[in-house]
Write a structure and sequence with these properties.
Helix content is 21%, strand content 28%. It is an alpha+beta fold and 140 residues long. Strands 1, 2, 3, 4, 5, 6 and 7 form a seven-stranded antiparallel sheet that branches.
Length: 140
């Protein structure tokens, strides 16, 4: 049996996202980089709490009201973030770990402590993210 990856807070992972996710709107499946943010690492029967990353950072620059709800990393700030990447903290995604494993879950790396703290600060002050989500993450 394959070993369950340890998705602690600050781990960046990738997985296919498609219409089987209740929140996925696009007809086309896409492999997405994500930032795990569980309060404690999930076991196989738990949900993973995470935020989706995107390399489409200009969208946020063109919508200045949204820029405060993202954390932008410069290109190659990490080997697993080769392009300029925004982590979107407007909506917390909650998906069973078992489902992510069936969708090609791959651990890519981990943010530094300083970058993790920076993300926590953005989450705490995020205007669009629900307070319920902030409480789930232990940040409110």
């Amino acid at each position: 049996m394959a070993r369950t990856p340890q998705l602690e807070r600050g781990c960046v992972f990738g997985a296919d996202h498609d219409s089987t996710y209740g929140f996925w709107i696009s007809k086309d499946p896409r492999w997405k980089r994500c930032l795990a943010f569980n309060f404690t690492p999930p076991s196989i029967n738990d949900d993973v709490h995470y935020f989706i990353a995107t390399s489409r950072v200009n969208y946020f620059r063109e919508h200045p009201l949204l820029i405060s709800d993202v954390r932008i990393f410069v290109a190659s700030s990490y080997s697993f973030l080769p392009e300029e990447t925004a982590i979107d903290f407007r909506e917390l995604r909650v998906v069973p770990l078992a489902k992510l494993r069936t969708k090609g879950l791959k651990l890519l790396g981990k943010l530094t402590t300083d970058d993790l703290r920076s993300c926590e600060m953005v989450i705490r002050s995020a205007r669009i993210l629900e307070n319920r989500a902030k409480r789930m993450l232990g940040l409110l």
